[in-house]
């Protein structure tokens, strides 16, 4: 069994409800100071060489000090303070969380500044949904799900157009293309109707509305099967297409900068043309029970709450839905705290989380915010003990993520050149704790690093195990980051920065509802905040390792193996319809270069440290850092050109069947010609060749 670096629960800084073991003695701090004294003395007398074991011991002690300074009561206090009021981006209460985060970092002595932008945000002024049934009775549905707090925004879809829609109701299951094909087979059309859809796993609310609009629907109602944890919660969200400020597409929305008009096609195409609103499960079931018409297709049965007797309409049930929205320019403020590197201050390791929430945000996102604040506190403990990271560390609190990753996207667009030249990695945590079980997504060269970090942290639910051991027994899958649902998207998909995204718990029932509160957290997801402590430990350790290791712990052999697996899956899907030979040759070359880079890294790690190797390490690190950038293509993904990554990125077509190679996936999904599919294959092959050249270095 792997032994975590700390075998005790986190210390408790104050009296609280949390039962804890005795805190560990301050031996780690003492040892760390002794090691620093010895290291300083040795360096003064032996400037050209430092024993590798001394650095190893120093790193081990540092990591122990970081882990032993954890406090679940402290994280709980952060979360409690952050979630006292709803704090939707652009509203007055959001300024309180801005001040709280800013003051926290400043109180720790961290260099802290705001990065401000102006963005077009969307709010509801009036919403209503009423239904008339076959017996001529009518119901005005209650669209409030809050506990009476006037600051809780009413459930709505941001960027849905204002207007009313009235029509017969048709149930469309998850609203995917295949669901409409199933309806067509039983003679059901949604033209001039209001569609009712239940949110599924593969298609977001924006995609549901986009397809319904194309099918001729007048409006869309969307509900979630989970009923908001039994409270009647209603899931808010955005239906904007793409990410970032819609009136500054492709450039940063800096204060006083260029803003397009709402009539500009580049803006208008970001928004749906038909209104949509969210419904609670309870209200949706009232409508579902009233529907006549044909029976639901058999493939929909036993999925969620849909049975064999379910009718899909259109019958005599008529819905009238109204949304009056407000589009207004608002200040978006990111908080950036900087810990300047001692040896490579121009290389950056970035940890990020957004702080804005649809309501109280205890899970999404402030479980992650509280973990980030605790990492800042623990880093300050290390700094006071004499630690200085080799590379610069940025702790970033993003704004307006819920509207479409706006804060982080504008920051990436403003800093894209500097990021491309100097960003080592981006580490994202959105919802730190949703429930039990560790989950992660990453670019493949970071897989080994992630697993190594998991070995060092005690499992929050089984003190006899490490997180790595439970992860391998329960999940053991590191996902790939083609999805666009958190702030890593701009870093990876647009700027080509190696990235990790992590969270505890696969799902949770109060997502984007008024019940995502501190009380729900302590009663359901993490009563003792042990999972928060574990996530902060993993996240912070990853930052420390990436900031401090002389040779970056990247493994591009893992990337080569993953590319080969993607090629094999693509070949199987194509069934000979197009040649994948260009991919095969490009991946073969990439594999050889990855092996060379790994051998070079191993040699530099094993040999005695001396300053003559500084240039060699720097040059290798830069090549490994830039390898990911090779997968970017200036033309981007067809139909989603802002997204540049040709290996991992969002497919433009909802029917795409691959979670990688988005351009190829779209060409297959749209039944493109063999020539078009092969063109997309060649584009990916060229991207892999660019990555090989970046990793190899030099020129042809």
UniProtKB/TrEMBL annotation:
SUPFAM superfamilies: PA domain, Transferrin receptor-like dimerisation domain, Zn-dependent exopeptidases
Pfam families with a match to the protein in the record: Peptidase_M28, TFR_dimer
Gene3D superfamilies hit by this protein: 3.50.30.30, Transferrin receptor-like, dimerisation domain, Zn peptidases
Location (main, coarse): endoplasmic reticulum
InterPro entries tied to this protein: PA_dom_sf, Peptidase_M28, Peptidase_M28B, TFR-like_dimer_dom, TFR-like_dimer_dom_sf
Cofactor(s) this protein cannot do without: Zn(2+)
GO cellular component terms, A-Z: endoplasmic reticulum membrane
Compartment list: Endoplasmic reticulum membrane
Domain Peptidase M28: 334-519
Membrane topology (UniProt): Single-pass type II membrane protein
Keywords, comma-separated and alphabetical: Coiled coil, Glycoprotein, Hydrolase, Membrane, Metal-binding, Metalloprotease, Protease, Signal-anchor, Transmembrane, Transmembrane helix, Zinc
Reactions catalysed: Release of an unsubstituted, C-terminal glutamyl residue, typically from Ac-Asp-Glu or folylpoly-gamma-glutamates
Domain Transferrin receptor-like dimerisation residues, every copy: 579-696
Residue ranges that the Swiss-Prot or TrEMBL entry lists as coiled coil: 587-618
Root EC class: hydrolase
Annotated GO biological process: proteolysis; regulation of meristem growth
Transmembrane segments: 27-44
GO molecular function: metal ion binding; metallocarboxypeptidase activity
EC number(s) stated in the UniProt entry for this protein: 3.4.17.21
Family membership: Belongs to the peptidase M28 family. M28B subfamily.
Protein name according to UniProt: glutamate carboxypeptidase II
Species: Brassica cretica
